[in-house]
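Kindly review these tokens for lecture notes.

. . .
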Amino acid sequence: MQRFLTILGIPAALVAAMAVIGLASGSTVDQPAPPPARRPDIVLVTIDALRADHLSSYGYEQFTSPAIDSFSRRATRFTTAIAQAPYTKASIASIMTGQYPSAHKTVTASVPFPETMTGHPTTAPILTDVLPASMTTLAEALRAGGYQTLGFTANPFLIEAFGFARGFDRFRFYPGGDFARGDRLVADAVEAARDADRRRPLFTWVHFMEPHSPYTPPPLTAGMFRVGGAPQPIASQVSIPGWLLPGTPRDLRPYVAAYDDDISAVDAAFDTLIRELRTMRGWRDSIVVLTADHGEQFLDHGGWEHGSNLHDELIRVPLIIQAPSSPAGVIDAQVQLIDLFPTLLEMAGAPLPATSGRALEVLWDRRIPSRPAMSEIVGVQSALREESFKLIAFPTGQARLFDLVRDPHERADIAAVNPARVHAMQTTLDRMHADAVDAGRGGHTEMVPIDPDVARRLRALGYIQR
């Protein structure tokens, strides 16, 4: 921790003083202290449903993301960052608490957590779980450490009623029949930053909805990626959600093209956000993180959108970090999104609550090796992803094993011919899962009814089926 603060340019004497009062030694949020000098502003940008392999900087053949590409060349780009869940609510809860879904239990969209575990939902009023008050959020920890905190989101899962506004001095959710466009969130975030105290560090979180379905890009980028090449017919037995594209064409190409159009739209919004914030707040000491909550699937493994499996198109996400004194470059070592929680708090010199994540020291020491990553659909399936293999395990005892080097698209299940590897990885996965359950033990799972307006938005997107 003291090394992180020294790297950020905080004087050694001040670091020593912080250690005495607890800021540099992992104190709890109940022990806030005066913020150190020149602490960095932090901008956390999460982009909904953005799969890594549809960004130009990650090798995509379409030029979808010129601004993100330019940003990544001046930053650290992680090639293998793993989300802890393949859908928004559980994944963002993991980012904001530094805990796995089995620990924070903020995992359901329309029915209580115990019913999700048993698979027997009721017809009672629609309920959902909320972030447990026993877990400190990233915004709470930063505010306790002296930061001003701003949050902006148009996703109906990430709202105050579900606990996601905790710790924010100013938080805005954008209700309505349609998701707010990225330019609206940018304008409000910039205005709020302009009103912030320049003498105090600022944490800004913006959660963009593009390129989440429905794939309806704005006029700026609509039609940018034209449908080309040979038709990719969708088999007649494959169901297509009616909200994805007008007319529900039975050709895969228009869906992918519109999705790419939406990526270009959020790319432009991200560019404006970072340029405006840095113009107002300064360049030298800011930390900027760009990532996604999960990816998106286009029949890769037979499904649409997200939330249904733990294959890489859903859990391997972009992660690009620009931080003071961290050299620009590409890091292939595998990391997890829960690692952002301790990393940002340590770089901010803020109190560090309990976390299952590990600070990303690889930002400064490229020799740090990959670490196993766990992802979950709680009660349905869990995955252990190592550098070369992935195990997907089910409550029935069934497991699937994939060789990520020879089979990066996870087409061939090799579990039957690799029992020893399956056993070893299952043992590791069981240990990580048990640790996550222990981390959440004693936390109270609170259930709240979903507001009818929010329920309508979720139902329109297919999240609520009744």
Notes: The mean pLDDT is 87. Residues 252-281 form the longest helix (30 residues). Residues 103 and 437 are 5 Å apart (CA to CA).
